[in-house]
Write a structure and sequence with these properties.
The protein is mainly α. It contains 20 helices and no strands.
């Protein structure tokens, strides 16, 4: 019972920290990292023993799936150069640099154990990077690179990690075995992900209830990961492929599913992250107690590893900015040294590093010291950039693309507007619609066009367009107040004697959907 109370407490603390972060304008991953430190320092909490072999299957699939839903195949096609440089080459270089550093510094560590440390410290966390960089109005090219980097570098790091752990435990290792493993694991995972994605879409198309659809999407990433690992393929790539396939084949009419599914996965992502940081805090409490006389010595080694992680990423992205800048691709990222420096500062280590650290077997050489070093890397790369990135972005002026990005939004809005009018014209030709109905729908379409890019400042438009935007904004404000009054009345009806709660919930849901359509 005590262990369950700790888990509930971690979830509650995570939710509260999100609210605190909104008030003090700090990204929640930074605060959740501090939560892990607090848990490690609080005495008296029970130790939660989670078998190491269950850590990765429990934590990685839902977070990978949630992140992959926010990207697409087409983005990978456009940004393959950046992904190759960051998700493959940089990860391998970081693994080698950290492994060499640990092998020199940590007494008694084997080369395989050092490589395992390098593998768990190498992959940045896309969730943390997006949470920190997203609100800063950075160029979307850079945020998209961080997302895609985080999806693929986990796959590379996990293959190296698993090989290194096996070598450290068994005492045998072959580079050719590693290459053959990766050459099989990646294509097999993609093929499995496509097959499971097709099956998932076929099943989802036959489930009408949004709640059941969201439940199925929660099962899918776990199934993809476990089946892939059972087949010795990459569970990470299998989950990413499934998410991309489902997102690519989404049904345009599934409005309720997108609303409920998006909210559902935001909650899952938040709670899983909080529990994971709390678990490593609980484990670190035991590790700190066992190494009380050596903490300063270990802290010095951990600091050097952190410096290596940051310096390697900074130097590589400086070179990458030069290489990518010569490609001439208008969507390239980074384009210059300033963008490269910002991307290098966004290399936050998060849940992947946490999960891999917790998954280290108990018999692993120097396990306690590796856990402390891994957590130090997370704290330094998460807290320091999380607090200083806004100032760095402002200092370097990496915010100059808002006009171009707004233009891209407007181009898509106009495409949607024209498509709607074309469909209206086709329907009029077939059904001979009443003239007043056509005029009303055309007026609605004009209002929709303005609403789709109503965030743009009025001075950047002609006066007619500015007036239309003000009208739409006033309409939304008044409509919001009207719907709020309707919701208050329905909620009051719930407390009346004889009220049917199911009827109340049905009407309230319809009102909520109307309100969601205004934002």
């Amino acid at each position: 019972m005590a262990e369950l109370m700790v888990i509930i407490g971690l979830m509650l603390a995570t939710v509260l920290l999100v609210g605190v972060g909104e008030r003090v304008r700090l990204p929640y991953p930074v605060l959740v990292t501090l939560l892990g430190i607090a848990v490690a320092l609080v005495p008296g909490l029970p130790v939660l023993v989670v078998p190491p072999e269950l850590i990765l299957p429990l934590f990685l699939p839902p977070l990978l799936y949630a992140t992959a839903q926010r990207t697409s195949w087409s983005m990978f096609k456009v940004r393959w150069r950046s992904i190759l440089l960051l998700a493959l080459v940089l990860v391998l270089i970081t693994i080698a640099a950290v492994a060499f550093t640990a092998w020199l510094l940590v007494p008694g560590i084997t080369l395989a154990a050092a490589v395992a440390l390098g593998a768990l410290a190498a992959p940045p966390d896309p969730v943390a990077a997006e949470a920190v960089a997203g609100p800063l109005r950075m160029p979307r090219r850079l945020v998209a690179v961080l997302q895609s980097e985080g999806l693929f570098n986990d796959a590379v790091a996990l293959v190296v990690y698993q090989l290194a752990v096996a070598a450290a435990v068994t005492g045998s290792y072959s580079p050719w075995t590693g290459l053959l493993r990766f050459a099989y694991a990646a294509p097999a995972a993609v093929a499995l992900g496509l097959a499971l994605g097709w099956l998932a879409r076929w099943t989802l198309a036959r489930i009408a209830e949004p709640t059941a659809r969201s439940g199925l999407t929660l099962v899918i990433p776990f199934a993809a990961y476990l089946i892939a690992e059972e087949l010795h393929a990459s569970g990470v790539l299998a989950v990413v492929t499934v998410a991309l396939y489902i997102g690519h084949t989404v049904e345009e009419s599934d409005v309720h599913g997108r609303l409920s599914g998006g909210a559902f996965w935001e909650v899952v992502e938040l709670l899983v992250t909080g529990v994971a940081f709390g678990l490593i805090g609980l484990e670190l409490r035991e590790v700190l107690a066992a190494n009380e006389g050596r903490l300063w010595e270990i802290a010095g080694r951990a600091a050097l590893v952190c410096v290596v992680v940051i310096v390697v990423r900074t130097l590589w992205l400086g070179a990458g900015a030069w290489l990518i800048g010569r490609s001439g691709d208008p969507e390239r990222a980074p384009r210059n040294w300033r963008e490269g420096l910002v991307l290098s500062w966004c290399g936050m280590r998060g849940l992947a590093t946490l999960a891999l650290a917790l998954a280290i077997p108990p018999e692993f050489p120097a396990r306690s010291e590796l856990l402390l070093i891994a957590f130090a890397v997370i704290v330094v790369t998460m807290v320091l950039p999380g607090l200083t990135l806004p100032a760095l972005v402002k200092l370097l002026g990496v915010q100059a693309e808002s006009d171009a990005e707004q233009a891209a939004d407007e181009a898509l809005a106009k495409r949607a507007h024209k498509a709607g009018l074309r469909r209206l014209k086709d329907l009029d030709a077939v059904r001979d619609l009443p003239e007043d109905m056509i005029e009303k729908i055309q007026a609605k379409q004009k209002g929709l066009l303005a609403a789709l890019y109503a965030d743009r400042e009025p001075e950047n438009h002609e006066e007619e367009q500015a007036q239309r935007i003000r009208t739409v904004q006033l309409f939304r404000e008044i409509h919001t107040e009207v719907l709020a009054a309707a919701r208050r009345e329905i909620l009051a009806a719930r407390t009346e004697p004889g009220a049917d709660p199911q009827a109340v919930d049905r009407v309230l849901r319809r009102l909520d959907l109307r309100s969601a359509q205004l934002h």
